[in-house]
Every structure is written in C-alpha cells, then in structure tokens.
Amino acid sequence: MGKKRVAVVIAENFEDVEVTAPVEALEAAGADVVLIGIESGSVKGKKGAVLDTDTTFDQLPADAIDSFDMLVIPGGGAPENLRIVDAAVDFTRRFVDSGKPVASICHGPQLLISAEVLKGRKTTSVNKIRDDIKNAGGLYEDAPLVVDGNLISSRTPRDMDVFNQAIVDALGAVGAQ
Fold first, then answer.
1. Which of 151, 116, 155, 123 is nearest to 139 (CA)?
2. DSSP three-state, residue 15
3. 12 in helix, strand or coil?
4. Are 105 and 159 in contact, with CB atoms under 8 Å apart?
5. SS3 for 6?
6. How confident is the model at residue 173 (pLDDT cuts 50, 70, 90)?
7. What is the pTM of this model?
8. Packing angle between helix 16-28 and helix 160-173, nearest 10 degrees?
9. What dotted CATH number matches 5-173?
10. Domain extents in the chain
11. pLDDT reported for residue 1
C-alpha cells in the first residue's frame, strides 16, 4: 500500500494552528496532505498564515474520496465559509458516509452540520456552536477529545496535542484491519 493521503479543507479566516499543527503531525507520520480550497491560490488565516491550496472542490474528480484516507476540518472562520459551498458540503457528507476517519476541531463541525451527518453522533467543538450541534441532532460533549465511530473531534487549540495524536493513530489504523 502506498502513502496515506489526507484531505484538509481550508477557506479564508482558518484558525492557523488548527491547520499547521495537524498538517505537521500527519506529514511527520508519513502522510501526503492535500489542501483543498474553494478557489486556487493563497488562503489567509486568522493570525496571518498564508497557505496555498493544492486543489479545489471543483477540480476534484467524482471519485476523489476513494483517493483519500482521512478528512480534516480545521476551525476558525473557514467552516462558515465552506458550509455555503455545495461541493464542499457534498464532499464532506460523502466522506463521512464512506466510513473513513473525519476529524474536526473548534468550528469544524459547522461543516458537518451543513452536511447533515451529526444526527445521533457524539462530537465536541468550541462551545460557541454547541447549540448548533444539538439543534442538528448531534450529541455534544465538552471534552478535549471525542471519538464516535469515524468522527474525531476536539474543542480548541488547547486540545491540539490530543487531537493530533488521535488523527495520527486513526490514520495508522486505516487499512490495518
């Protein structure tokens, strides 16, 4: 089996460390990380980071999910920008339905809410969107890390160490069964 591939979805106003730290952890574990954006080019984070997308949702082939082993949804303002893009919502829904690991942090579950995949599922997030999760039928837990099947979630950058360890472990388990 080749190198594991991870899709990381980004948009303007992403929380810098919620992209950079997981990307570093995944790359250190040997993964090939692909930054997927709404448009080609540079995307600015909340704290000044500037990242270039590798591809866009519109450029992804219909079977793109088959070529990825995990999806990571960072927070900040990015999920709010992604959730109004039908291709991003559809990609997320299909990824969750595939059974492959889907990790979200902070405001990341906003994209899961729009993809309508949280009903009856446990997740955590920044507390500012807990009511949104509950209103979408999700089971909100205030914990540093919540894992429910293929969903992995953490609250904020202060949970980054446990989040990064969980996603690296989950990626290592993909295909190991």
1. 123
2. coil
3. coil
4. yes
5. strand
6. confident
7. 0.97
8. 40
9. 3.40.50.880
10. 5-173
11. 43
